[in-house]
């Protein structure tokens, strides 16, 4: 198998792991602004529904200001950014996600969750109509993930920081690569 074929397979595994971990943290972690912002590189660029946000601190501020959310990922795809790594090294990965997102109108209440169906029933809406829930909306998100450099890994270990996202894709004797989010573009579609 060629290096490019290996990178394509690795990017697919990284994308799947990233989507599972990221949206679980965004939707469920009680300290999500701190935990999620640590996944972003200081120089990251974020576009949240057309609004520019800069870096890790900007990501933390955005998440702190947002109500609780629920995401149902309907599809995702990932691909390596060819030429972004030396042979045998982890490459950068582009991840595209689409699905449904719902936000709670109250930062202390969970949003309307719609099990595995794409549409809530009338009874579900009526049961919560006095809570001013925001209806689920279709979203699209694109992420650029880049591996941490050896210096960034060493600094994180030295300072005891949990930076980046560990995306274990294969069982080898090498530690799994950690990835930064360097670009994040989120947009409501409908």
TrEMBL record:
Residues 14-188 form the NTF2 domain. It holds the Pfam family NTF2. SUPFAM superfamilies: NTF2-like (SSF54427). InterPro entries: NTF2 (IPR045875), NTF2-like_dom_sf (IPR032710), NTF2_dom (IPR002075), Nuclear_transport_factor_2_euk (IPR018222). This is NTF2 domain-containing protein. One of its GO terms (biological process) is nucleocytoplasmic transport. It comes from the Eukaryota. PROSITE patterns: NTF2_DOMAIN.
